[in-house]
Amino acid sequence: MTTAPIALSCGEPAGIGPELAVKAWQALGADCPFVWIGDPRHLPEGTPVATIDDPAKAATAAARALPVLPLDFAAPCTPGQADPANARGTIAAIEKAVELVQQGRASAVCTAPIHKKALIDGAGFAYPGHTEFLAALAGVERVVMMLASDRLRVVPTTIHIALSEVPKRLTPTLLRETIEITARDLRQRFGIACPRLAVAGLNPHAGEGGAMGREELDWIAPLLAEIAQDGFTLSGPHPADTMFHAAARARYDAAICMYHDQALIPIKTLDFDQGVNVTLGLPFVRTSPDHGTAFDIAGKGIANPASLIAALKLARKMGAGA
């Protein structure tokens, strides 16, 4: 049976999303079919477009043009200049992508980057970002962000908060849920039968026996021992500064980190162009390129499509059951 295509939401139309969609189609063609959801007016001039009304037509259309499921946005766009008038259209594209995957007409959702201020200004967008909005659309309370490449998978337990807030927000319940969701999706979405998880410490040198902080001694290590008794393959807490060299990475399938930069600095150093943002814990597959709207280069034709291509390929692999 042929796998349904990927639903690619357009993202912020004044960013690099539209031109990257064209470059991704040129690179992938019918080998990794996707349908772009957005206003065709926002695509680069001269883009060959195949307007379709059914995602099932995407694979055939992709051999000759970019398959587009058109939405009418309120306004045209100028690259590099976000227009709040297009906020509702951007949101509608995400909603349509989710609708298609929930109906089984798409195998996965891939999202181009959005500009949250434009969404707030134009539509009163009430979510911190894509991830929280997708969780609301799916009706789930807890999701997990993973950054993945062929060289490393990392999961930050706390995400977009000040470093001073991390010790307050990092709780046993939060860490347990992060570990459980990560292990489950590595099994179900990535086809890893017995996922190996390495957990970083919160403090330098994982607290060094309490000399640099007691969280590791007081609750992190005991919690990991408790979770391991439930059948999870865990190690840690490890000093984060020794977790990401090649020999260490060979010993685990994903690294559970305590805060944003502890996770994202290593993967962006190792594989900046190929990193993919994956949302774990959803009832469908969602990936996204690991970059923003890049207004400074939008419309100049120089944006690198590598991360979007990697996101589409991973979405197809995960959508097919890895």
From TrEMBL:
Pathway: Cofactor biosynthesis; pyridoxine 5'-phosphate biosynthesis; pyridoxine 5'-phosphate from D-erythrose 4-phosphate: step 4/5. It is found in: Cytoplasm. Belongs to the PdxA family. Its cofactor is Zn(2+); Mg(2+); Co(2+). The keyword Membrane does not apply. The active site is located at the dimer interface. Its EC number is 1.1.1.262. Gene3D superfamilies: Isopropylmalate Dehydrogenase (3.40.718.10). It comes from the Bacteria. It is an enzyme of class 1 (oxidoreductase). Substrate binds at residues 130-131, 268, 277, 286. GO terms for molecular function: 4-hydroxythreonine-4-phosphate dehydrogenase activity. This is 4-hydroxythreonine-4-phosphate dehydrogenase. A divalent metal cation binds at residues 160, 205, 260. Homodimer. Keywords: Cobalt, Cytoplasm, Magnesium, Metal-binding, NAD, NADP, Oxidoreductase, Pyridoxine biosynthesis, Zinc. InterPro entries: PdxA (IPR037510), PdxA_fam (IPR005255).
